[in-house]
Amino acid sequence: MLKSSFKVLSVILIGLIVLSCEDILPSAPMESELLDGPMEGLTHAQSAQFIRGDVAFNDELFHSGNGLGPLFVATSCVSCHAGDGKGLPSTSLTRFGQIDATGNKFLHLGGPQLQNRALPGYTPETIPEGATFSVLTPPAVTGLGFLQYVTDEDLLALADPDDLDDDGISGVPNWDYIRDFTIPRPDAITRDGKYIHRFGKKASVYDLLEQTVDAYNQDMGINSIFDPIDTFSGLSIDPEISQQTIRDVVFYLETLKAPIPRDQDDPQVQQGKAIFSQIQCASCHLPEMKTGYSPIEALSHKTFHPYTDLLLHDMGPELDDGYTEGSALTSEWRTAPLWGLGLSKNSQGGHYFLMHDGRARSIEEAILLHGGEAENSKNLYVGLDQSEKEDLIKFLESL
Question: How many CB atoms are located within 10 Å of the residue 50 CB?
């Protein structure tokens, strides 16, 4: 009898503990509230490679004992892209040296990227006299695989360099040469030996392999077989990271899921979406794109919703930083994808740091910085009544 009573009491106590834990412990966040995570449709082998890339991107910390520096900006990938999201002004990168399409004249002085930190015994770089420069906050890295496999043909169809439709918007691709290790896309279109680039704030990077190789080399001073040149000595050195790790990180970036929109049935969000098109934001922040062929089946011939056209647009004197790369003008910027915008604060300390350098502390402030080709849309936004502005902001935060 005593033993039975003890069992009953034990069950009651365990139940109370479980209920108490449920009350105390936070519930797991919904998938739509997170930027990280793999896209659907990966095979078992692809999922294993995604995990390897995830570990290299989020867990690997570099130091003097495993190749860091001697000059560097960051000690890990995740230090600039927490939760695969946007970085902070404190994690910004500085690019310097080039004012026009004639090429960077400061490569022999450490360009194009400033390594502002150094191991003990070494001196960090400073911007050379006469060089122009731009400060860039790290972008979110989710959904990049979809952007990579949009065809060049589709991008050229979106371009309107002569503004033939007379809407004041004349997006253009950034044409530049590719690196020795780069394999052009099967659908690649060339012009005078140059290719369409699509990644980076000024669309100056061709693909995610180049992005990854440069991040290791220029951000952390980690050399690979793809780029063995040491940023400090200028000499070719043995690889400090394996080719397989580079490939795994590239695959991780390719197969991170696209941000999941939220509250799409909310009437205020729906009204905001209508206003977004009404004031012509969708002319550059294109709501829908599609991929062409990809060797990764989960990315092949897929429709997605990034709110970008991947093209360069003149954003006016307020955003002219006097620095550029490739064929972009100093006032031209690639249309920033808006998907995941509402989750930006999660990786930015609970605050917004928007635009290329993080100067905008709210979505409205970012809108008001638009000029050049976006001047008309900005003015249309200014002319909205307060409730319409709130609807638009709520829509943007739902992406």
Answer: 21
d(CA 151, CA 290): 8
Q: What whole-number distance in Å separates Cα of residue 163 and Cα of residue 171?
A: 8
In angstroms and rounded to an integer, the radius of gyration of the C-alpha atoms of the chain is 23
Cα separation of 215 and 333, whole Å? 20
Residue pointed to by tokens 């200028």: 234
Three-class secondary structure assignment of 67-97: CCCCEECCCCCCCCCHHHCCCCHHHCEEEEC
Q: How far apart are CA 133 and CA 128, in angstroms?
A: 10
> What is the Cα–Cα distance from 337 to 87, expressed in whole angstroms?
15
In this prediction, residue 308 carries a pLDDT of 98
The angle, 0 to 180 degrees and rounded to 10, between the axes of the packed helices 267-278 and 386-398 is 100
Could you say which DSSP state residue 355 is in? S
Q: Find the angle CA(390)-CA(394)-CA(395) to the nearest 5 degrees.
A: 120
Q: How far apart are CA 70 and CA 56, in angstroms?
A: 20
Query: How far, in Å, CA of 96 to CA of 105, rounded?
Result: 10
Name the residue among 150, 45, 9, 33 with its Cα closest to residue 84.
33
Q: Is the whole-model pTM more than 0.90? A: yes
Q: What tens digit of pLDDT does each residue of 77-110 get?
A: 999 999 999 999 999 999 999 898 888 999 999 9
∠ at Cα 153 (148, 158), nearest 5°?
Answer: 90
The CB density around residue 17, as the number of other CB atoms within 10 Å, is 10
**Band of pLDDT at residue 19, cut at 50, 70 and 90:** very low
Q: What angle do CA 290, 293, 299 make, to 5 degrees?
A: 65
**Does the CA dihedral 384-387-389-391 come out positive or negative?**
negative
Residue with tokens 């829908």: 288
**For residues 106 and 128, is the Cβ–Cβ distance under 8 A?**
yes
Q: What is the pLDDT of residues 213-265, one digit of tens each?
A: 999 999 999 999 999 999 999 999 999 999 999 999 999 999 999 999 999 99
Contact criterion met (CB below 8 Å) for 337 and 142: no
